[in-house]
Amino acid sequence: MAVTAIVFDVGETLVDETKDWEAAADECGVPRFTLMALVGAAIERGESHRRAFEWLGVEHVPHGFAEGDLYPDALPCLRALREQGLRVGAVGNMGVVHEDVVRPHVDFVASSERWGVEKPSPGFFARVCEAAGRDPHEVVYVGDRVDNDVAPALAFGMQAVHVRRGPWGRLHETPPGARSIESLLELT
Questions:
Q1: 132: which of 43, 111, 149, 158 is 20 to 30 A away, CA to CA?
Q2: Residue 1 — very low, low, confident or very high, per pLDDT cuts 50/70/90?
């Protein structure tokens, strides 16, 4: 069956998170390198990136992304896909506060905080299909992380695209069955 919906992860897929992470490190009172090393260590250990804040003994309150944080190819891609008649969504492991930046540009948006389930849980991908109103084989999930986005989407029966940007997008190898891209414009 043909693809009728494309759903995007948000952080490091549609949004460049650099400013957000820099601000988080500054607010935590630690060097930016330290926070990023801890985030990387948590992810490498198979834990949530939020674990870094636990190790630092601080509570991090996300601020939300701004339109200027979107990657340059994000809006042209979203616009082109919608013009082609595809249902387009954006859902990631993020707080509700991060939904607003993409809301005007997609047919639906949600967050793991809103749903109460995070990737890589199959329950997350079931909610994606429910929000898209499509069966898994009709949905493509696009993300930067193989462990959180690409592999679990494939396992759920979706098609998956690995966008090679951000730290994990560059580090992870694209698994068999997924497509690898350098720019979101390759999807159009």
A1: 43
A2: low
